[in-house]
Amino acid sequence: MDKKEVLKQLNLMSRNTLMETLEIRYTEIGENYLVATMPVNEKVFQPMGLLHGGATAALAESVGSTASHLFVDVENYEVRGIEITANHLKSKRSGLVTATANIIHKGKTTHLWEIRITDEAGHLISFCKLTNIILAKKPD
Q: Which of 66, 74, 58 is nearest to 135 (CA)?
């Protein structure tokens, strides 16, 4: 499958999920990375009118978990996030944020991702780390 088709399929998988609610959109894919965007608007605000840290963490986990999904045999294995950390470095009131997940460790049972969330000017908004576990699917 070409990259455009993979991105199309990833975005279709987001229907009726938190990713659709937050308007997360997968936009770029590479050998060891995945990129997604999320608009900053009232859907993702905390009460002070700023991007909510939980929405930022949801964006980071979405892009990192989906990236791990691309590396596994989905017929026999599934991905689960087991730890996420987020350092929120800059506030954001409007516009668009972009999350870029880069693989740090791709083992048989765990994947470690660095996720950098930036604004339109390239300023670092949040720096996140996600650990995923790769589990064998249980027979039905």
A: 74
138-to-73, 78, 82, 113, 135 alpha-carbon distances in Å = 14, 10, 18, 25, 9
Statement: residue 58 has pLDDT above 90: yes
What residue ranges do the domains of the chain occupy?
3-136
Residue with tokens 């060891």: 32
Q: Taking phi first (over 0 means left), then psi (-120 to 50 degrees means alpha), and beta for anything else, what does residue 25 get?
A: beta
What CATH class has 3-136? Answer: alpha beta
Dist CA 132 CA 84 (whole Å): 9
pTM above 0.85, yes or no: yes
Catalytic machinery residues = 61
| Contacts (Cβ under 8 Å, ≥6 apart) of 99 | 35, 36, 37, 38, 59, 60, 62, 63, 115, 116, 117, 128
Please state, as a whole number, how many other Cβ atoms lie within 10 Å of the Cβ of residue 88.
17
